[in-house]
Structures are given as C-alpha cells and as structure tokens.
Amino acid sequence: MVDVVFSEWVPAGFFVKALMGFVSTVILCVLSITVITGVAFQNPFWIVVSGSAIIFLLLLFWNYRGIRIRLNKKELLINYGVFNRKSIPLADIVSCETVNTSFRRYGGVGVRFGTDGSWAYTTSFGNAVKVTQKKERPFVFSSSNPQKICDIINQMKDQ
Question: pLDDT of 119-134, one tens digit each?
Fold first, then answer.
C-alpha cells in the first residue's frame, strides 16, 4: 500500500444542498396534497411516483455528496460518487494550478465538460485545482485547499 501524502473530503456546496432540499420539499408537498385530498387513495400511482422520486433524489444526493481526494507518491486519486473515479499518475502531470470554477465555464456543478475543453468534478463554484496532463484533456476538481495540493504535486514532480 502506498502512503497517502494528502487526503481531503470536499462536501457538496450550499447550492447543491439547497436545490436537493427544494426539489424534495416540492415532491413531499405534492405527495401530501394527494394524500390529504384523497387522490392518492383513489389512484395509488401518485404515491408510487412521488415515493420513487424522493428515493431517487436521496440516492442521487448520497452518491454526489462530496469529492474524496487522495494524493500519494505515485498518483492523484479523485472519487466523486460510486461511478466517477479518476486516477492520474504524477508522471503524467505537466502542470498544476489553482482556478475558480464558474457557472459560465461548466454550466453547473457535478461531473462537467467545460467550455475550455476540460473535464471537471465540482461540488460548488469557487476554489478548484486544474491539472494539465501529457496525453489527456485538463482535469479540474473542487478543493478547499487547492494551493496546498498544487504545492505538493509540484514539489513531488521536481524530485
């Protein structure tokens, strides 16, 4: 097992939490209205649809609740949920810099393709790390400590 040099958990930002809360509240209100008015008992389909939507949203939020960043002496590992994993060998990194993610560049948060040609895993708008690779497109990910990550990567590349 390779020793971890840096590890960070970047939780979902306020925007994502607020959006999920709002959508869940709307669905719960619709479900409550259908139960109170008796429509749900006449047509149980509404309960199934509303319940399924809430369960789906909760699973979606749980999956994308944050980014796990690990940096060891060989590679940079970024996990965003169950299916989005990125492993970048340090030998393939050309440069590392701090950037600010914006709605204009990525069109939202999550797994995104930027207008500048980069891939991004973002939990909110703001602080992020941009890693330029030898063969692949640039990769951007949210971080609370972008300068620290770049300093460690640049220091390890120089050795």
Answer: 999 999 999 999 999 9
